[in-house]
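During the second year of the project, the team shifted from modelling isolated chains to modelling whole assemblies. The rationale, set out in the original proposal, was that interfaces cannot be judged from single-chain predictions alone. As a representative example for this report, we include one of the complexes processed in the last quarter. Its constituent sequences, exactly as entered into the pipeline, are reproduced here:
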Amino acid sequence: MRHDRSQQSVVLITGASSGIGAALAREYAHRKSHLVLLARRIDRLQSLAQELERLGSQVLVIQCDVNRDGDLDQAVQKAVKKFGQIDVVIANAGFGVAGFLDQLTFEDYRRQMETNVFGVLRTIYATLGELKKSHGQLVLLGSIAGYISLPGSSPYGMSKFAIHALAQSITPELKKDGVSVTLIAPGFVESEFRQVDNLGHFVAQAQDPIPRWVQMPTDRAAKKMIRAIDRKKPIEIITAHGKVIVLIQRYFPGVVPWLASRGLKVRSQPKKTEL
Ligand SMILES: NC(=O)c1ccc[n+]([C@@H]2O[C@H](COP(=O)([O-])OP(=O)(O)OC[C@H]3O[C@@H](n4cnc5c(N)ncnc54)[C@H](OP(=O)(O)O)[C@@H]3O)[C@@H](O)[C@H]2O)c1
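Output from the structure prediction step:
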């Protein structure tokens, strides 16, 4: 049964088991939205669901690998069976492959594109029919790396440039169907992102090389993201440092590559510094 707009919206989030996805789920739970939470680590999703249900939200958790054909279609079927419709889809699942070109393999690039680009496309194709019916909202997680790609992170930069291109093309395309698109481009936000290895596995003992004071707390970032989604903004850059980098890149495009090449002289090994 489909419910009307005055009732809670149904929000589907990929990559909800940690970081930005989990923080978005918490924010939506505070406003009693119904939630469909997807990720590979089902144990994490289950404990998050228990927390969110205490806030009064109805939560459906489904194990889902965005790399696997069929997983998203099945998740959407289950979501519609339980909630009747889907109003907001947040294609958030992603990770970063770090390394210089000559240290990486073709497979490393393929793995990165599979999750960050084709995983997003799978999410869109699986949910678009429902979003058209609900005149809903599609949210894509881009990055400052979708504006400027730095040495040591070409796979990740390629993947986020692709997402920015996708958003730019489909925002006007989907408008005619009543589906709005919001591209979120964060700078450094607290999460497990920089503790995930090149194979896409979380490594608990890995150190995040970006100092905590540079990173925006996840709950603050999630609030800003949801404000932009509510206003149906086509694009939102999250973090002040992210906005500054984008401005410098736009008006002084030589500056960041020059700084990056000076950085390269002092370190021969790339670190997980993607944003
Ligand atoms: N944090 C930042 O500084 C930052 C900056 C710019 C952009 N971003 C973007 O924000 C998004 C979220 O990242 P985060 O910072 O929150 O990192 P995170 O804490 O590592 O979370 C990543 C999420 O993606 C999920 N995921 C990864 N591969 C998946 C797959 N194959 N199938 C399903 N889910 C998968 C993970 O869940 P499972 O491992 O349980 O599957 C996890 O829930 C990413 O797209 C990232 O590129 C982050």
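The mean pLDDT is 93. Helices lie at 19-30, 42-53, 71-83, 106-134, 154-175, 218-230, 240-251, 255-266.
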